[in-house]
Amino acid sequence: MADNAVQFELVSPEKLLLSEEVEMVVVPGAEGDFGVLPGHTPVISTVRPGVIHIFEGGAVKTRIFVAGGFAEVTAERCTVLAEEAVLLDDIDRDQVEKSLQEAMEDISDAGDNSTERALAEQRADSARAKLASLDTQTYQ
Amino acid sequence: MASLKDLRVRISSVKSTQRITSAMKMVAAAKLRRAQENAEATRPYAERMERMLGSLAQSAVTAGTAPPLLAGSGKDDVHLIILVTSDRGLCGGFNGSVSRWTRKHILQLRADGKQVKLLIIGRKGRGIMRREFGDIIIDTIEDTTKPVPMFETAAEIAQRARDMFEAGECDVCTIIYNKFVSALTQDVTPQQLIPFALPEKDDADGETTDEQDSGLESGAVYEYEPDEQEILADLLPRNLSVQVFRTMIESFASEQGARMTAMDNATRNAGDMIDRLSTDYNRMRQAAITTELIEIISGAEAL
Fold first, then answer.
1. Whole domain around residue B32: which residue ranges?
2. Do B206 and A27 meet the contact criterion of CB atoms below 8 Å apart?
3. Which residues in A lie closer than 8 A to residue B221 (C-beta atoms)?
4. Same domain, B185 and B289
5. More confident residue, B123 or B72
6. Tell me, what CATH number does B95's domain have?
7. Residue B207's pLDDT band (cuts 50, 70, 90)
8. Average of per-residue pLDDT across B101-125
């Protein structure tokens, strides 16, 4: 492996989504974004819903939205276990707004059913996070 | 004795059965391939999660700060059993064997004075268990495999198990499913979900590989962000869903394998039957011709 690259892996429960060598990757950690360059200290962190930025040649190459998960970083590797991952460019705003609305309705319909309520709230949170990610474009 | 016409009808009906079973075999074979690919695709996630969990859990257990999902509720009174079966039949002993195993397990637990609750995935399992254990079935979850098991469904099931555990409605949760060995073999396997059983580490060679692993992987201790306990509290429920998902995927692959084998046997049996019936049919037709000839000849001789 090249010395100036990080082996970045993005895994969802269903499959290995991405595995490539990148220059730098910025992960939305639970306590703030952190950038991973080669030689990073080993870290295990939770990931909040947000956008993963992959840098190539000093500029953002890919933006991927993740709905939370975990990240494991070692000196030469960065593995993100994501619950849901979509390319930011593939997100359709109208559709997200609709699913947010549906989730809100589900929450009010769920009433006392705690399981359904929790699931609907999760959906709503994920939709909100998607919208927020679309609105704020950090990094160029 | 069946008449010639009866035999003809039977042969054609067996033939159409054979057509169906061989078509089902083809379908199962195609689905099996996809299910196997699916099962393989889920492996990286589970492996990496296990690695993270391993390093976290070990330190939490030694520090005595393990959350209930890992340490258990301190009791062993109420067992929740999740039984994974298929929605559709015609797959040989697939549902029968896993249900039989579960039945034995339940009776054993009862003999030990435990209380048992049953959560069933798949329509077939309900049909089998309803008669004897109808009163302890909490719910049946159907149509989980359309067209393949989805992670969301697994997460919902895991959530339910967790809710019950947290509400004190169960102390131990075990999932029983058909583990996929090969297309021809499935193994009934119980797996304990709550409290989470760490991968075996206490046997001698397990320890050495573990040391090598951690030495290779990082050579250093991880930093945790936020802190260990919070990550663990997040990771454990997620791991639960992943485990449920994995068993569902495995069970689905096993189901297709079992169906393929069963349908292959059925097709062969139908072929044998057609051969036997055709022999009977030809023999009888020949006998009828001979009888007719004899009648004509003896009639002519009598003149």
1. 22-199+207-259
2. no
3. 42
4. no
5. B123
6. 3.40.1380.10
7. very low
8. 93
